[in-house]
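REQUEST ID: PR-0412
SUBMITTED BY: lab tech R.K.
PRIORITY: routine
TASK: structure prediction, single protein chain
INPUT:
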Amino acid sequence: MKLWWERKGLAYNENNQVIFADQNVQKLGEQLGTPLFLYSADRILENIERVQRALENTGLPNRVYYALKANRFEPLLTWIKSSTTCGVDVCSPAEVRHAMSCGFYSSDISYTATSVSNADLDFLTNFPDLKLNADGCSMIRRIGERTPGRSIGIRINPAIGTGYASNELLRYSGEKPTKFGIYISELEQALQLAQQYDLRIDRVHFHTGCGYLNDQLPAWEKILRECLKMIERIPTVEAINLGGGLGVPLTAEDNHLDLSEWASVIRRVFGDTSYEINVEPGTYIVKDAGVLVLEANSVETKAEKCFVGVNGGFNLTMEPVHYKLPCEPVPCILPDSIKKSFAPANLSPVTVAGNINEALDVLIEDFMAPPIEEGDLLAFINAGAYTSSMSSNHCMRGEFSEYLLLG
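STATUS: complete
OUTPUT:
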C-alpha cells in the first residue's frame, strides 16, 4: 500500500526503511546523530522547474525568486544559484549579505520587509540594482531622502487574503488591518511621495497568505483582480511580484496544487498586459524537499494517553505549534508486524511531544501510528521550510545538523 506522502525520492523500500534522496534515513540518523535535517537537491530543482514551466505557459515574461527566509542553509542556496536562474527574496540586510556570500548578485535580490529602520535603508540604498520594495509611505519618504531618482517597488495590501485550509494565522492580508503594505486608502499619498522625490515605481509587490492549494485558487484569483485595480493606477509599473504562498500537501486529504490551473489564473488576470510576472515561493520549493530526523526518547502512557517524547521540539519545527499546521512523523523503520499494512487495527493514537519545557511543545496529538519504541528514529516529512531557519536555542536545546543530499 502506497502511503499518501510517498513519491519518487521519498518512500519505504522493500525492507520497510525510509529512503530519501536515494539515502537510507535510519542509517544517516545513526551515523550523523539527531536532531538531523536532510534536504534533497534533486527535489529542490524539480520544484523550481515545475514553477518555471507553469509561468512560461502564461506567455508573460517572468522570473522566480526563492524566499530565502524559508531555508537559508548555505549549500542549499549555493545549489539554487549554481543550478537555476532563480533570484532570491530577502527581508533583512543580513539576508542580503548572506545571499551575496552564496553567489547571488545584488541584481538577483528582491527586498521586501516591514518596520524597516533607517540603518537598514542606509545599507540597502547602497545597491542601486537591488529590487527594493517599499512597505509604506514612511519607507518611500526615507528612500527618497537618501536616493532621490531611483527606481523602487511598492508593496500593496488588497485587504483580502488566503492560505492553507483558510487558516487565519497564515494570512498577511484580510479584513483586520495588518502591518503589511499600502492600502488603497493610502495609495494616492504613496504616489505623491514618490513623485516628490522623483522615485520611479516600476514594480508592485503583494503577498497575502501562505500554503494555499487548489481550493484556495478562486480566492487567490479575486486577490489578483483586486490588486490589478490598484496597479493600473501606476502607469510606470513594469513588473508584478505575486508573492509566494504556494502550498504542498500536509495530510492525506490534501491534493497537490495544480500549477496549470494556477498559471491559468495568472493568465486570465494579467494575460492582456505586458507585465513581467515574478513569484517568490519558499514553501513550495523546499518544504517537501526536507525531513527532520528525531529520536523517540520516551514512550509511556500518562492518564490513559500514549506520549512519545522526541529529542527536538517547537524550537526546531515551530509550524505545528505556532501555526497549528499538521505534521507527519514517520518511523524510519517499520516494525515487522506492520509490513506496510497501515490498517487501523495495526495503528494506535500517540501524542508526539518535544523536549522543550513548555506546555505548548506538543507537535501532534492523537496521531494514528504503528508501534513506536524508545530509541526509534522518526522522520518528520515536509521539514524543509520554516524549520531550521526559524530555530531557536530555547532551553539551550538548539543544536542540530543539516546536510544537502545530492540525489
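NOTES: The mean pLDDT is 94.
REVIEWED BY: pending
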